[in-house]
Amino acid sequence: YVDCNVFTGYENTNTISEVTLVLNENSTTTIFTEATPFYYEAGGQISDKGIITLDGKSIDVLDVFQTNNGATGLIVDSDIFEVGQEVELSVNKSFRSGVSKSHTGAHIVHSALRNILGDHVAQAGSNVTPGKFRFDFSHTEKVSQEELDEIFILSNSAVFEDYEVKTNIMNIDDAKNEGALAFFGDKYDDDVRVVNIGEFSKELCGGTHVHNSHDVGLIVLMQESSIGSNLRRVEMLSGKLAYEFLTNAYKSYKS
Asked: What pTM did the predictor assign?
């Protein structure tokens, strides 16, 4: 049993904290600290990458996970850690920034899908990584090219509107009454985190996001496809990878 640690990653990517538990099993070392800025894979968003610094040595964080009782553990390739040590935990800022752009982009696309296709659209899965994200949703037929054009014009218009991205902790019933989207099958506490992108999007979400919609940069649709009965998938690029894709497309066009 491990006590839950405090997640500081919404405000910071760097935290100094004390080691509370070290586990050495099957040639793998896992450490727990009182506080951590590392986000574990959840809600489609992949785990953070980064390092832990101790006595001038930097150790890579190989993976991040959550225990059954909600504590975040860090898997490392080193056995130098002991309970009581003070360590510096540093999330890779570039990695986190890219993931956050994609996650906010996913919320924007979800809202655009519902605006264009209808309120029956509901999230059925997602995968959020730096510069790339996909969004699975319920819909009974192939999305037409005209509809796709409208969806991504609306999505990028939201990016360029400079919507402030705000988060609030609210009672779940109050959040739902205000129109916040919750996902069927997900379990929620009485108090939930609500992510607002201006008035464009309001969802329950525990992930990391940018501060303003313009930070997403650009959203480029790569593919729309079927993934099962009445289920569709859109795959997209955001931020730097979206820019690089368009740059390469332009070069190909010019040649």
From this structure: 0.94
